[in-house]
């Protein structure tokens, strides 16, 4: 609709332009970039032409990328064998010290490395910024002829007449909050492809639509998630040990929640630290953000940060379901790759290598199909490659770790999961695969659960959410449709507030949701969408699945530096 001078609005029809490609990829993360690079490598090796483009909703490649990260280079070695000598930032810091702590309120107990299988020891891995790795991968992709369009989110799936995926359309630009067209309005662009890869990351906006459309998750367990809250610190030289990685479990979480912390000593005197709270937690009073702040007050963590300065903040959900939650990967005209399909190895806290390999396998299947003159059919070769891959084998070994800890608690669950990992490592297959329950169904009533004791932010070691969002460089055009949609606007106050004290006030790590007017007897649910860091927690944890996260205008959201 276009406003007129007399205040009325008229409808205007705008024809969207279209661009054809052989392969369109949604998302410039490790999976999407690896797929694009592999497609171009295969085409160059065959002396053929292949058109590939990537759409990225962030303002630049890496803007929305957040991970610990300790990265297994297995897939990178396969994709770009000379990466260590080609200026890749990941090569700066090999891991040289691997520690695992069990925390009580005031003490730590270091677990000896030998009690865990070898794949848990981080030998041969690297620590650094996943965002910077993606920026470097984007350079390699563009050097091969891949077209990358940052600031253009894929907002709509396009279908052929036979129901196969035809491609995607980018979101309209210049739409006001009331739906009217502003002066700078520009309609979205259609990108048509023989095959479309969805590499959206966790809880992808379009992936949510694709899964039921093709019944991709009909034969798998529901995906479950964790929320990782991360900070980047400049620390004093005497507190820095480049290449040291530390993982923690235990305090401050109690029997109503699971998760753990990480602290990675990276390049340039920086430490990346964060805390993951699994989103199956039962207590609606829990705030994952505040659990992270509380964790930093542990004497052993605080000692490393003393005299340092926080320089960045971010948060994102991670797919924790493992092998039993991986859906069918291929469908007519497209494929799921990377974290949107859920390839994270939970006990290793690593998914970059598996995500990259999934993109490479999909690329090989798509290249063979395009070369054979096919289009818009199902890439069965991708599914077959995954079923026969080291990715599936790796995920199979650890498939019961998360559900065992969920069911039996931190101590007993860790012991039992350790036994299963050792047995699987020794080629003794455990004769069961445990199930999952959706995270939104786990909350108990607020009136029967204790309220955690969280530290008051001091602005030095601990912080509030709004100051944290500020250092995430998050920004959205305010005059646009709210991208956090309520299916029923009455539910937050009428249902969630009396039953769960409206948990969105606490599970969101960016202060997007709040209840105002409760003291006056007139509670209202407020959505501060401009604060959103695109973590997707609300889309996952809302008890009635009432919140639907859709992509905002291109370029909005965080702009993570070095994360």
Which class of the domain at 19-83 and 132-221 and 323-396 in CATH terms?
Alpha Beta
Secondary structure: helix percent: 25-40%
Please outline the major beta sheet.
8 strands, mixed
What do we call the CATH homologous superfamily of the domain at 19-83 and 132-221 and 323-396?
FAD/NAD(P)-binding domain
- Uncertain regions spanning at least 5 consecutive residues: 1-14
Tell me the structural class: alpha+beta
Q: In what range is the share of β-strand residues?
A: 15-25%
How do the strands and helices of this protein lay out in sequence?
Layout: E1 2-3, E2 9-10, E3 18-26, H1 30-46, E4 52-56, E5 70-71, H2 74-79, E6 97-103, E7 108-110, E8 126-127, H3 130-143, E9 147-150, E10 154-159, E11 165-170, E12 173-175, E13 181-186, E14 190-198, H4 207-213, E15 225-234, E16 244-250, E17 259-265, E18 270-278, H5 288-296, H6 299-305, E19 309-319, E20 330-331, E21 334-336, H7 352-371, H8 380-387, H9 390-397, H10 401-408, H11 410-425, H12 465-470, E22 484-486, H13 491-500, H14 504-507, E23 513-516, E24 524-527, H15 537-541, E25 547-549
Parallel strand pairs: 3-4, 3-14, 4-9, 6-16, 14-21
Antiparallel strand pairs: 1-2, 5-8, 6-7, 10-11, 11-14, 12-13, 15-18, 15-19, 16-17, 17-18, 20-21, 22-25, 23-24
């Amino acid at each position: 609709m276009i406003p007129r001078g007399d205040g009325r609005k008229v409808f205007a029809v705008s024809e969207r332009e279209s661009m054809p490609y052989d392969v369109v990829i949604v998302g410039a993360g490790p999976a999407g970039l690896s797929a694009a690079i592999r497609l171009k490598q295969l085409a160059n090796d065959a002396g053929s032409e292949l058109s590939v483009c990537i759409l990225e909703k962030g303002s630049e490649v890496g803007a929305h990328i957040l991970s610990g990260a300790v990265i297994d280079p297995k897939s990178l070695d396969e994709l770009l064998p000379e990466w260590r000598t080609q200026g890749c930032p990941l090569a700066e810091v090999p891991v040289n010290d691997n520690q695992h702590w069990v925390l009580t309120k005031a003490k730590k107990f270091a677990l000896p490395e030998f009690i865990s299988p070898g794949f848990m020891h981080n030998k041969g891995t690297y620590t650094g910024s996943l965002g910077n790795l993606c920026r470097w991968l984007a350079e390699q992709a563009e050097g091969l002829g891949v077209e990358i369009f940052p600031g253009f989110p894929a907002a709509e799936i396009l279908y052929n007449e036979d129901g196969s995926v035809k491609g995607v359309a980018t979101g309209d630009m210049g739409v006001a909050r009331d739906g009217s067209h502003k002066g700078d309005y520009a309609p979205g662009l259609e990108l048509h492809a023989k095959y479309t890869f969805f590499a959206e990351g966790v809880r992808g906006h379009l992936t949510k639509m694709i899964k039921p459309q093709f019944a991709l998750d009909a034969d798998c367990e529901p995906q479950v998630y964790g929320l990782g809250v991360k900070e980047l610190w400049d620390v004093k030289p005497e507190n820095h040990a480049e290449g040291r990685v530390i993982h923690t479990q235990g305090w401050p979480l109690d029997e109503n929640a699971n998760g753990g912390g990480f602290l990675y000593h990276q390049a340039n005197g920086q430490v990346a630290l964060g805390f993951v709270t699994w989103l199956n937690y039962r207590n609606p009073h829990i705030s994952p953000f505040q659990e992270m702040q509380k964790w930093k007050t542990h004497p052993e963590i605080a000692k490393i940060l003393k005299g340092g300065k926080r320089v960045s903040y971010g948060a994102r959900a991670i797919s924790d379901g493992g092998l039993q939650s991986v859906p069918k990967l291929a469908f007519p005209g497209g494929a799921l790759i990377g974290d949107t399909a859920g390839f994270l190895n939970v006990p290793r806290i690593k998914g970059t290598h598996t995500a990259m390999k999934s993109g490479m396998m999909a690329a090989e299947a798509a290249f063979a199909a395009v070369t054979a003159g096919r289009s818009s059919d199902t890439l069965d070769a991708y599914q077959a490659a995954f079923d026969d891959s080291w990715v599936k084998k790796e995920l199979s070994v650890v498939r019961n770790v998360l559900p065992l800890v969920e069911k039996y608690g931190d101590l007993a669950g860790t012991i039992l999961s350790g036994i299963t990992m050792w047995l699987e490592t020794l080629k003794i297959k455990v004769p069961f695969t445990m199930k999952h329950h959706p995270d939104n169904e786990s909350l108990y009533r607020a009136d029967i659960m204790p309220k955690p004791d969280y530290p008051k932010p001091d602005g030095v070691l601990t912080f509030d959410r709004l100051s944290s969002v500020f250092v995430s460089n998050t920004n959205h055009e305010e005059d646009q449709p709210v991208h956090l949609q309520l299916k029923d606007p009455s539910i937050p106050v009428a249902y969630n507030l009396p039953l769960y004290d409206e948990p969105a006030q606490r599970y969101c790590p960016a202060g997007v949701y709040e209840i105002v007017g409760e003291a006056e007897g007139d509670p209202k649910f407020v959505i501060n969408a401009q604060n959103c860091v695109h973590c997707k927690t609300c889309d996952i944890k809302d008890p009635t699945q009432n919140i639907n996260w859709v992509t905002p205008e291109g370029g909005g959201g965080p702009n993570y530096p070095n994360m």
